[in-house]
């Protein structure tokens, strides 16, 4: 099957979800949904052996050929890894959600439709080789994330969190689009592979640095890097399966993916390396520090996710250094990219299980407030075991996979001492130090999460529900992920060969031409080296600080909320709402008159400008019809009647004068040899006048004597402008014909083709039959509207003004 | 003739726009009526006012003698549509007056939410 169609399978499946929910409501809709990611996972897994060898797949579906826009599915090591994460974690999360969301109380059709849309979008992001469709899917993930966060839309916090995430990620997305457009201008192509092939030339271009910064803005907002991370903690209002899936395992890694994917394009730049590594590392230490301030279990996990994303981001930044060193494959610099991908996999496993546990605790005890929890160890032994495995892995302890990637992270940071460009020879020492501090806090919050929930004193009186272990179905997914956490520790090199090395080869194509050449062996023990001592230091200091946590945790409350980034966001939103409102109130006056003035003036301006710029105004004196006495007399009557309307005191006079204008026009039609028009105009005008009189003459309440219209200079000026413009247009249009008129064709063929003598009638019912059909439709719509208006009775009932 | 007609068309448009900018609902509707008259004459003039015979096939009339039938067909459509729109406007105004007791546009500003 064509790869590009597979991307759309979840979104197509989403079409059937409402039906399944309505018709087969007694079966939880999740069971049907589960089939989609599970089947996709199995299918994509069959591609693994050939991708391991360095094989790639391309499949293309043309979308807008004239703009050179196409859906291109490109499967290499990097995109296959993400694809397996999306479908694999997706299947586990759907399974978990079946037990998390009640089939009777929740609006499952909404939930699963959004989730499947997200799945398609995310597959599209990681498989697109085309920049524009990549952007399209990117924004689709933002939108589906918005819908999922706001799933419980009656809660204020949900809507606030949804809007915040949307604002920030879509802002980043738009910036990224700008970067993509610059890239395509520089490289003359939308294809990422072709851009990578011409990377050295691109680096010389003037736009290069702009494209780089704009693309990074997109990646940083999506992957919640400092200072854009503030949307992620608020996104925790989403149902927990969503948090586990979108806001920890997949969507927030889209930014990581983008940075990894575009590393070959941008890595030559010093700015790239400093920004990606610097922002990533700072995010890591900042978020791990503030994770300890959180009281909400999911809040802790949100900050921890931000921190871990920063860690992976910084590794990718350091990985760019390998581009600048001859024979980098033989130095320690090679570890950075490998560690990034390896940790990405590990993070998905342990953080996914931790989120599910947080959801279970919320579900079974009714609260996520860590101050109320404690002592759940004996009540929820399975959950505790899973949480312990996940947390210790996150903290970097053996025998869990987090230990391996944390060691490699430190190795990669230390490897910067081998790198002496970009003033790194002076500053490199900061990287391992900051990384170490961040790791210490990571250690503390990991223990904080698990022990303050499960150890300590049980406080049943604080909990809304009687705590007990979760049902077995809810535990399957987290237990499975926890098992993976342990398993990966023992078979790291198998995972390395299957998943990590193909991805690394895709990130660093100039270093390795096939995944087999990635010469990295993961081992839990590599002697007494600096990394080991750093790790031991983390355990010692971290353990000590966790021991004394209660003594210093209140120091976080000293930090004032008034200067936080969240506050900045709130202020900016208020300002932009208020500003936009004030600005639009300047011209949106609520008077139709004002709007008409804008329209008429603008139209006049545009038409006159066009006439002037194209030198289109001319008068042709040669081809004029002669001026006759009758015409002049009728025109004088017409003008006289028009002036009467303008000057009339009463409505009645105005209505009758309008009738006079209409009859003059009918007479003009007679003179200009248009008998059908004259007949129609006479009939219509008569009915119109009768209608006018009916409507206004027979309304007794309205006073027939009215003030004469006051002369208003502004209105007169606009009216004069329009009048003059129309005269000029009429003259120009008559004087020049760019193309021969189709009338000649009608005149010649009317009898032999259409068999009719009256050319106008034949045109209406035959040549332009559809016009007439729609004309009748308009007439019908107006008729329905009139009946509705007459029958409509706007009686004011009590209690109908909810919006007031 | 076309030049004289163009000036008359300009005048019709001018009067129409001036009326449409006024406060009274009935004047606005009269304005739209004048506007459609102006537009019809504009179509006719654009095609040229020549031609010595109505566009009906008859013996002894050569093709070049017919008045241009295309603008006439377009105008015929336009007349009917403008009638439909005008009558809808009228009923709308009539009902608005019945419900609200005024036809003054200044008072018909329905934007109290922003006040």
Automatic annotation (TrEMBL), chain B:
It comes from the Bacteria. Pfam families: Oxidored_q2 (PF00420). Keywords: Cell membrane, Membrane, Transmembrane, Transmembrane helix. The keyword Protein transport does not apply. It is found in: Cell membrane. This is Multisubunit sodium/proton antiporter MrpC subunit. It comes from Planococcus citreus. The chain crosses the membrane at residues 6-21, 28-53, 73-97. One of its GO terms (cellular component) is plasma membrane. InterPro entries: CPA3_antiporter_subunitC (IPR050601), NUOK/Mnh_C1-like (IPR039428). Belongs to the CPA3 antiporters (TC 2.A.63) subunit C family. It is a multi-pass membrane protein. Signal peptide: none annotated. The lineage of its organism: Bacteria, Bacillati, Bacillota, Bacilli, Bacillales.
